[in-house]
Specification:
Blueprint (H helix, E strand, L loop, with lengths): L4 H18 L1 H8 L11 E2 L5 E2 L22 H37 L1 H16 L2 H11 L6 H13 L1 H15 L2 H8 L4 H9 L4 H24 L11 H13 L5 H28 L1 H7 L1
Antiparallel strand pairs: 1-2
Helix pairs in contact: 1-3, 1-12, 2-3, 3-4, 3-6, 3-7, 3-10, 4-7, 5-6, 6-10, 7-10, 8-9, 10-11, 10-12, 11-12
Length: about 290
């Protein structure tokens, strides 16, 4: 995979943004800033809270400027916001992959009435207006429930069907192979066949699915927060930062407030997408043969 340019670029972007989120506490310790501290001296109250200084208040104290209206350090907000976005997308991806693999293996291996019932459930999920219900769930669930956890569970609930369909197709092909028939003839249990014969041969497919789903969950989670129905206003998140920046950017008061969080989200989605595409090509024998 690393022989391709896109994989190296994707890994570089993904690593840079991931380190920003992982090292958020360290960054706060180095800069002496955190995402909850208000700095009234960094904004101009007479103009409604426009940051004082060039590029949105960039200075030796605030390396990427400050948030208009509050004076909170923008670098700290982006670092902790990246951590929130990555954790939500990672949790949703793992949950969706787990459900999808379980359902897909059951459909492909057992067939019969299991395939009929679960297959209809998968078809139903594909036709379900998931985006509308994602928005509705965020609005009706009480605020006392953890919003990141709610977004994570909601994304996974509506995102497992594509994994199930892909895994089911691969599992059905593998279930007809001679080594699976031989395992059954020796008296191996269904669990043993699924975990020892089928699942190891689906690792490549699952890895590619997970890698390609991750950027989609990042974008959807950020979109919900952008609309103001994702994480709470006190929780730093890239989509919410971008949503809060629209008014300041539209009026021209502080366009840098949109640029820096937008760049972090762009690099996160771009890097994970490029890595996912590179993984897909690496596991595809036909792509390898074409390259040779």
């Amino acid at each position: 995979m690393l022989r391709t340019t896109q994989a190296r670029i994707g890994l570089a972007c993904l690593t840079m943004v991931a380190l920003l989120g992982l090292c958020a506490p360290l960054i706060s310790a180095i800069t002496g800033q955190d995402p909850v501290r208000f700095d009234s001296a960094a904004i101009d109250a007479a103009t409604g809270g426009v940051p004082i200084g060039p590029m949105g208040g960039v200075s030796s104290t605030h390396w990427l400027g400050v948030e208009p209206g509050t004076g909170r350090d923008l670098l700290a907000l982006i670092a902790y916001g990246t951590r929130t976005s990555v954790l939500i997308a990672t949790g949703a991806t793992v949950l969706a992959a787990g459900i999808g693999v379980l359902v897909g293996l059951s459909i492909g291996y057992f067939g019969g009435w299991v395939e009929t019932v679960l297959g209809r459930v998968v078809d139903f999920m594909f036709g379900f207006p998931s985006l509308l219900f994602l928005i509705a769930i965020q609005l009706v669930v009480p605020d006392s429930f953890s919003r990141p956890l709610l977004i994570m569970a909601s994304l996974a609930f509506f995102g497992w069907a594509s994994t199930a369909r892909l895994v089911a197709g691969q599992a059905k092909v593998l279930a007809a192979r001679d080594y699976v028939t031989a395992a059954r003839s020796t008296g191996a249990t269904h669990r043993a066949v699924l975990t020892r014969e089928l699942l190891p041969n689906l690792v490549g497919t699952i890895v590619v699915i997970v890698a390609l789903q991750f950027p989609g969950f990042v974008g959807t989670g950020a979109g919900l927060s952008f609309l103001g129905i994702g994480v709470g206003p006190q929780t730093p998140e890239l989509g919410r930062l971008i949503g809060n920046s629209i008014t300041w950017t539209y009026t021209g008061a502080d366009p840098w407030y949109l640029l820096f969080p937008g760049a972090a989200l762009f690099l996160l989605v771009l890097g994970s997408t490029l890595v996912g595409d590179a993984l897909r090509d690496a596991f595809d024998v036909r792509t390898e043969q074409d390259a040779q």
